[in-house]
TrEMBL record:
This is Membrane protein. The keyword Transmembrane helix applies. It comes from the Bacteria. The chain crosses the membrane at residues 32-53. It comes from Streptomyces cyaneogriseus subsp. noncyanogenus.
Length: 227
């Protein structure tokens, strides 16, 4: 009888020990799963934070977004006038190709988003206004753009047209939306002149026709729009 009792006690002790080991195993698995879940959650938070920071950084850049409605990425910028009278745009000029009009902050524009097709600028003189989005692409290729209003003397218009016709990487068109009678524009640079005989005309052409400001030097000025 004592032997049977001892056997029963030993079996119960063995079952208890087995149950204790099973419980300990469950606790270990629970701890592992809890730690793993915590690690995954932390990684997700970190990844989300990095994505947010990168997105905000990309959105605040100066290369323009998908729409491209201003001359530079966030519409900010200003002219700084040098001793030579040339106004230089201080601000990043975006260069995204767009299929719609662009609201440029200055007239004529000095750069920014533009149409994928440029105005021919191989000494081309246009008798009617051209679209800014096409002319800006010409500026990107290193052209100088001469614009004038109805207040510009006819003799000056004719003399400037003759200069443009003999100058590759230049174009000319009327623009009654600009403030001054005669304006010379290159990518990121602009100045007004008093007339065709103003020494600033030759100086501007010499410096900016395919000048250092050109984003795409050597790009063509033919094969685009002719009117």
């Amino acid at each position: 009888m004592g032997s049977a009792k001892n056997s029963s006690t030993a079996a119960r002790t063995a079952r208890i020990e087995e149950m204790r080991r099973a419980e300990q195993a469950r606790e270990r698995r629970t701890r592992v799963l809890t730690v793993a879940a915590a690690v995954v959650a932390v990684c997700a938070l970190v990844a989300g934070g990095v994505f947010l920071v990168r997105t905000q950084s990309d959105g605040s850049g100066g290369s323009g977004g998908s729409g491209g409605t201003a001359a530079d990425g966030d519409g900010s910028g200003r002219f700084v006038t040098g001793e030579d009278g040339v106004r230089t745009w201080k601000g990043t000029l975006s260069r995204t190709h767009v299929a719609k009009d662009v609201a440029y902050p200055v007239e004529p524009p000095v750069g920014g988003d533009h149409h994928q097709v440029w105005m021919n600028c191989d000494g081309d003189v246009y008798g009617k206004p051209v679209k800014n989005v096409n002319a800006v692409h010409s500026l990107e290729h290193g052209a100088v753009w001469v614009t004038y209003t109805g207040k510009a003397p006819k003799a000056d218009v004719e003399a400037l047209a003759a200069k443009v016709r003999r100058t590759p990487y230049s174009l000319m068109s009327p623009d009654d939306r600009q403030k001054d009678p005669i304006v010379l524009t290159a990518w990121g640079h602009q100045r007004t002149v008093t007339g065709a005989d103003d020494p600033a005309v030759d100086a501007f052409f010499e410096k900016f026709v395919q000048g250092e400001q050109t984003p795409e030097p050597g790009a063509p000025c033919t094969g685009g729009l002719s009117r």
